[in-house]
Design brief:
Blueprint: E1 2-5, E2 15-16, H1 21-32, E3 36-41, H2 48-52, E4 59-63, H3 69-79, E5 83-86, H4 93-98, H5 100-121, E6 126-129, H6 155-164
Parallel strand pairs: 2-5, 3-4, 5-6
Antiparallel strand pairs: 1-3, 1-5
Helix pairs in contact: 3-5, 5-6
């Protein structure tokens, strides 16, 4: 999760999933825009992406499990973000078949916990939640759009579809 705060630009928020590939690149982009970036991770030992991009020392890292309401609420309250970027959760489709409960809990319940915390504490935080084409499953030869029915084929796709429904 990325939480960004910057008085000059007026943006800010946590970044959930900052240690993943997409999260690290998003953090670099936000830093280049002048944001102060607070990142969260369940496993702060996996910092290779941040180190490779040369930004490890430019982001504030916090431990948080999205599925644990209290840990997320404490981070959100401490950071008081303007924006939140949620890229957290187990993202391997293959791994989701061996850990379906962890996948569903981390993605769907984690997203719900963050939204509920925001509803209770701040009503004006911008919240970005990463989706996935896995929600749609096999769409055949056509592209998916807003009217395409969800027919996920994996526990990961089910988890992503659960918070979007």
């Amino acid at each position: 999760m990325a939480w960004c705060n910057d008085g000059q630009i007026g943006h800010g928020g946590p970044h959930a999933g900052i240690t993943g590939q997409d999260g690290a690149h998003l953090a670099r982009f936000l830093l280049e825009k002048g944001y102060v970036v607070h990142g969260t991770s369940r496993d702060s030992a996996r910092l290779d992406g941040l180190i490779a991009l040369g930004i490890r020392d430019k982001v504030a890292l916090r431990s948080m499990s999205p599925a644990d309401f209290q840990s997320g609420a404490l981070v959100i309250e401490a950071v008081a973000p303007d924006e939140i970027y949620n890229l957290s959760g187990q993202s391997s489709v293959a791994l989701s078949f061996t850990q379906p409960a962890e996948t569903l809990t981390g993605i769907a319940v984690g997203t719900l916990n963050m939204l509920e915390t925001l509803r209770r504490l701040w009503g004006t935080v911008r919240f970005y939640n990463a989706g996935s084409s896995e929600c749609f499953g096999d769409t055949g030869t056509g592209a998916a759009n807003e009217q395409t029915a969800f027919r996920p084929k994996s526990p990961y796709g089910v988890a992503k579809a659960a918070y979007q429904s």
